Amino acid sequence: MSHKYLLLLLSLAVVLGGCKKDESKPESEPVLAGRWPLHSITYLEYDSLGRQTSQTPEFVFPPERGYYLAVTDSTMQQYYANGTPYTTLRHYTRTGNVLIYRGASTSWINTITLLTATELRILEKYSRLQNGRRFYIGEDHRYLRPE
């Protein structure tokens, strides 16, 4: 009988010792809030139906220029390296990847096209009237921050 109990105890030890709690955590969603150094901007042009018609080469900002985007849970503002803002403070609401800004006389919609822990891309589309012709423009802003 003692051999059966010994075998049973050894089997139980192997089974319990082989079971390990899965400690992997689900990947958390990247955080939009924070300081995002501006890496580059690409300009796009669209026709009146929203089809892209042209694109400039990516304009890369030298890191020493130090432009950055400061984001909170409800505001965004772009800054020079010395901390002086070069855009007005924009209050926004976010639904998924859509950012809606509401100003005193204007509101516009931007789209987050990529958000990781180290990279943010925001596509800003707008139109402009010049010499009697309406231009539809997009700005693809790429921000990179260190890990």
Give me a quick take on this structure.
The chain is mainly beta and 147 residues long.
Describe this structure in words.
With 147 residues, the chain is mainly β. The chain has one domain (30-144): Lipocalin. 12% of the residues lie in helices and 49% in strands. The protein has an 8-stranded antiparallel barrel with strand order 1-4-5-6-7-8-9-10. It is globular.
Order of helices and strands: HEEEEEEEEEE
* Helical amount: 10-25%
Mean model confidence by pLDDT: 84
Radius of gyration, rounded? 26 Å
CATH fold field value: Lipocalin
Total strands: the figure is: 10
Q: Which percent range describes the beta-strand content?
A: over 45%
Q: How many structural domains?
A: 1
Shape: globular
Summary tags:
147 residues; mainly beta; Lipocalin; eight-stranded antiparallel β-barrel; 10 strands; 49% strand; globular
Q: Mind sketching the topology for me?
A:
Layout lengths: L1 H17 L15 E13 L5 E4 L3 E2 L7 E4 L3 E5 L10 E6 L2 E5 L4 E9 L3 E12 L2 E12 L3
Antiparallel strand pairs: 1-2, 1-3, 1-4, 1-10, 4-5, 5-6, 6-7, 7-8, 8-9, 9-10
